[in-house]
Amino acid sequence: MSPNHGAGHGAAHAGGRGDWPEVDLHVVSGKGGTGKSTVAAALALALASTGQNVLLCEVEGRQGIARMFDVEPLPYEERRIARGLPLGHVAPGAVHALHVDAESALLEYLAMYYKLGRAGRALDRFGVIDFATTIAPGVRDVLLTGKVYEAVQRNARNKSAMVYDAVVLDAPPTGRITQFLNVNDELAGLAKVGPIKSQADTVMTLFRSPRTVVHLVTVLEEMPVQETVDGIAHLREARLPVGGVVVNMVRPRDLGPADLEAARTGTLDREALASDLSRAGVEVTHELVDSLLEEARDHAERRALEDSQRTVVEALGVPSYELPRLPDGIDLGGLYELAARMREQGLA
C-alpha cells in the first residue's frame, strides 16, 4: 500500500474494502472546522457502497448526523438513514445512525449488567446519573466508548441487535481524541477494580487492536496540519492505531506552476486577460481587471501555502486522501460525491 494517495491517484476499489480490509471500527477525528463530521458521514456512505451494513455514531451531543442527512433528531436507538451507492454488481449496504449520550448509555449498562431497568430509571430521576458522569468525566468516556464497543462486538448479551460490518465513530476533536480513547488512563485515579474498570480494559483491547484505526481530518493550513502531526504522535504514544489523514476542502488546482508564479509576482499579461474577457462578451474595465489580478495573486499565495502543508502531510508516512471543497456546500448529494471520491482513493 502506498503511503500517500493524491486526489485521483488511487485505483477504484469497487467490491473490495479499500486500504483497511481488516478494520471494523473507523474513528474519525480532526481539529474543529476541518469537517470531521462530514468526513465521518461520507465514510459511512462509502463503506455502505461496498455492500457493508454500517453504523455511524456520534458522541458529542450536537445532532450533526441528523442535520447532514436531513432527518429528525436522533434518539438513543439505531435508525437507518441512508443506503450506499450501487456500484456494479455489488448490492449497496445501509447506513444506520446512533446518537450516544452518557446518561442513556449508563441506564443501558445498568440494565444489561445489573438488571436495574426500573431502578436505573429511578436513579436518573433523582439526578444520580448526571451527577456521576459530571463528577467523573472519565466515567462518561467509558460509557460512550463502551456503547461503541458493544456495537462493534455485538456479543451473546444482545442477540436481537443488528450486527454491523463496520462502525464509523464521529469522535471528539484531535486535541481530545487520545484522552477520549485511552479510557484506562482516564480511570486510573477513579477505579482500579470493579465492573467499570473491567469494561475500560475490555474496550481498550478493541481500540488497540488491528480492528480499529483513527483517521485524522485536516485542511491545508498550518494550524490544523500541526495539530494533526501532534495528534498522530499522541496516538502512537498511547499505542492507539493511526489510520489515514484525510485532507478536506481542497481547492481546484487548475493553474500550472508558471501561471501561479506570474499571478503571485504580479506579472500576468494584463492585456491578454482583457482581450480574453472581451472575447467572452464581458465588458472590460480597469477596475474589473485589477480585481481579477488581485484575486489571482491571492489564489497563488493560497496555493503556495497549501503545497507547503501538503508536503508536511506527505512526510507523515501514513496514507493520505484528498477531498474537494464543494462549491454548493454539504447536503446528502455532496456526501455521496465525497463518498465516491473516498472509494476511488481506497479509503473505503
Description:
This protein is an alpha/beta fold and 348 residues long. It has helices at residues 36-48, 64-69, 102-114, 117-125, 128-135, 137-153, 174-181, 183-186, 195-207, 222-237, 257-265, 270-279, 286-314, 332-345; strands at 25-30, 54-58, 79-83, 94-99, 166-170, 212-218, 242-250, 320-324. Mean pLDDT is 84; it is low at 7-15.
Concise description?
The chain is an alpha/beta fold.
Topology, element by element:
Layout: E1 25-30, H1 36-48, E2 54-58, H2 64-69, E3 79-83, E4 94-99, H3 102-114, H4 117-125, H5 128-135, H6 137-153, E5 166-170, H7 174-181, H8 183-186, H9 195-207, E6 212-218, H10 222-237, E7 242-250, H11 257-265, H12 270-279, H13 286-314, E8 320-324, H14 332-345
Parallel strand pairs: 1-5, 1-6, 2-4, 2-5, 6-7, 7-8
Antiparallel strand pairs: 3-4
Helix content: 40-55%
Strand-pairing-aware structural class: alpha/beta
Strand content: 5-15%
Number of helices: 14
| Spatial separation of the terminal alpha carbons | 14 Å
The largest sheet has its strands arranged as 3-4-2-5-1-6-7-8
Identify the notable features of this structure and list them briefly.
348 residues, alpha/beta, 8-stranded mixed sheet, 49% helix
